[in-house]
Write a structure and sequence with these properties.
Largest sheet: 4 strands, parallel
Distance between the termini: 59 Å
Shape: elongated
Structural class: alpha/beta
Number of strands: 4
Strand content: 5-15%
Strand order of the largest sheet: 2-1-3-4
Length: 150
């Protein structure tokens, strides 16, 4: 386990890497500054590619997932978990960063519905709704299914 003081020392010396195992949605809402988002399922490959012999500190919202994953790599002395995770950081009055900067994994862990997000053009959203509302008429014209409107 790594304490906040130990993390401060690593950060100040620019040694090691802090990896956040939160969901991409949680990471975007708030993470330890400098923490890089990674999917837990991709961690082994990332450790081989990125970490080498430098220390790796894992964090997660409450620290549980980070501890479980770190235990899997206990034979590697360079992988450990942050005490109390990101909640411990923010609970100590330290600021959180937002957004998704320099991720180690592509954020493909969250399914977004067609109408979610602020970057959807209103025309695309309307096209989706038109398609959805038109399904009943499309099924009526098709005639090859067993569905009926009640």
């Amino acid at each position: 386990m790594v304490s906040l003081a130990e993390l401060d020392r690593l950060t100040a010396s620019e040694q090691g890497i802090l990896i956040d195992l939160a969901t991409s949605r949680e990471h975007r809402k708030g993470h330890i500054p400098g923490a890089r988002f990674a999917l837990p399922i991709e961690l082994e490959q990332l450790l081989l590619e990125k970490a080498g012999e430098e220390p790796v500190v894992l964090t997660s919202p409450d620290g549980r997932l980070a501890r479980l994953v770190a235990a899997r790599y206990r034979e590697r002395q360079t992988v450990s978990a942050l005490e109390l995770g990101t909640a411990g950081w923010s609970g100590a009055g330290r600021p959180l960063a937002t957004g998704l900067e320099n991720p180690l994994s592509e954020p493909r862990d969250i399914y977004k519905r067609p109408y979610e997000g602020t970057d959807n053009a209103s025309e695309a959203m309307q096209a989706y709704l038109d398609w959805e509302f038109g399904l009943v008429e499309q099924l009526r014209r098709d005639g090859t299914h067993g569905f009926f409107v009640i």
